[in-house]
Amino acid sequence: MSVAHVERMPDGGARFYLDSHNGRKLIREALPNGGLLHYEGARGCERLVRGEQPDGSVLHFEGARGAQRMVIAELPNGLVQYYQGAGGKERLVREILPNDAQLHYEGEGGAEQLTRLEQPDGSVLYYEGAMSAVVRAVLPSGLTQFYEGQSGKERLVRKKWEDGRLQFYEGERDAERLVRESRPDASELYYAGNADEERLVHKTLKDGSVLFYEGARGGERVVQGTQPNGSVTYIEGEKGSERVVRKTWSDGSVGYYEGLRGVERVTRKIFADGGVQHYQGERGAERVVREQWLDGTVLHFEGEGSAERAVRGEFPDGRVEYYEGESGKERKVRMAMADGRVLHYEGGSGAERITRAEQPNGDASVVGYYDGSKGAERLVRQHYADGCVLFYEGSAGAERAVLGKAAGGAVSHFVGEKGAERLVRHNYAEGGILFYEGARGKERVVRGVAPGGNGVTYFEGKKGAGRVVRQSGADGSVLYYEGKKGAERLVGAVARVGDEALHFEDGTGAERLGIAGYHEGEGEAERLTRKPSKAATTTALHLRGCAQRCRTPPLITY
């Protein structure tokens, strides 16, 4: 296109026109400052479309003649600005920097405020306020950073990741330090230290647990953990190899652990009351093997994992109890006492009852047998090492001996309440019977019946000093004695044969027989003065035999 006409302006500028079918139209204008304006449109409707500044800036315009508005400004430094609004009221809405960064603005012309900066790497900064302070930055990775403070002094206060992770910062610009981090798993991490030296000090988990850390940044190691139930775990070791060494519970109990990280196993647990449990086994399969109580009681366990069952209990008073049955249902089957006694039990857990009691003592050993439910066991029988057996009657705690059987067949009978039983009769295996009178411990023999009822012996005197005073034969004869126990002497004898009375007299070991005056003389020098009847003679000879036998121990002794 060629210029048809140039109009020189008084200010030194010039206008350039082009002829058209309907007349001459303005196409370009040179300004005195060296600027150049370009126009488009028909004659009389020419409109400014571009302006070139002496500094190299280029302005682009839109709109009809008289209403043109600047829409783009290209600056020499490579900056491109975009405008909106009516002519004379254009407002800057966007700038493109030489590095392709874009700045976005809002507000009336002359009062535009920067609201957003888009970087070539995809990051976006958001601004607020009259001074256009940075309030948010969105990075290509999806990380969003939040800022507070006046323009030029903005400080980082928060970071947010796409997965929901949040970090919180405190401190002045360029010295912001991380103080807290929230993670998607609901855990919270807390930090201490200056910027770039922050170190993790504790961490809260979703369930309310808290982990505490020690060590410099990057080398923090867990040293303690607390749980919502009040338990506290103590940890030792360098980062990455921390291991549990102790744990306390809200009830005051303390557990001790051994083993490497991840395979720690509890080996001992001390309870608030002073009790101690000892464990064996790998992690997750620890089992109680022994439990000690403050009073000195020790329980021993067998079984795997949570199925441990008590098998033995040792008590301060010297008792040892033995148990059988599965975990939680153990029942006592035997108890050994410090004095040597052994008790045997039967019945389910919690209802064990004594059925047998043993008292080892060599030849004096005793075994007792019991009937009745737990707590109401009553002694019914006792067996002694020598073969003797005692039988009891009465309720628990009030059992009384009623009968005793010796190994040889002898039987003793007792009467009286518990603790006051007294011997009243003793039956010998061969048939003899002794009868007793007197309080417990002072029973004295008062009468003895010979086997088959062949004679009765009568005694007098205290226990242990009873002496024979009379013996009655089954045939009606009677022997009389005097003297201390073991030295009784025959002092007289009487037998009746019809109306005849036969007597022994002067029982001194040289007794002489007198039969109604039939004999005279001493001992072997007796002489017959009158022949007695046949029956009287037979009785006399029998009594003489009794007299000779009674010079030895009495007929029945005890």
Write a structural description:
There is one protein chain. The protein has 558 residues and is mainly beta. It contains one helix and 49 strands. The strands form two sheets. It has a 47-stranded antiparallel beta sheet, with helices on one face. The longest helix is centred in the C-terminal third of the chain and has 16 residues.
Q: Which band does the percent of strand residues land in?
A: over 45%
If you compute it from the alpha carbons, what radius of gyration comes out, rounded to the nearest whole angstrom?
63 Å
Main pleated-sheet profile: 47 strands, antiparallel
Number of H- or I-type helical stretches: 1
Identify the overall geometry. Answer: rod-shaped
Annotation, overall tally of beta strands = 49
Which structural class do the helices and strands define? mainly beta
Instruction: Please tell me the overall pLDDT.
Output: 84
Features:
47-stranded antiparallel β-sheet; 49 strands; mainly beta; two-stranded antiparallel ribbon; disordered C terminus; 558 residues; rod-shaped; 1 helix
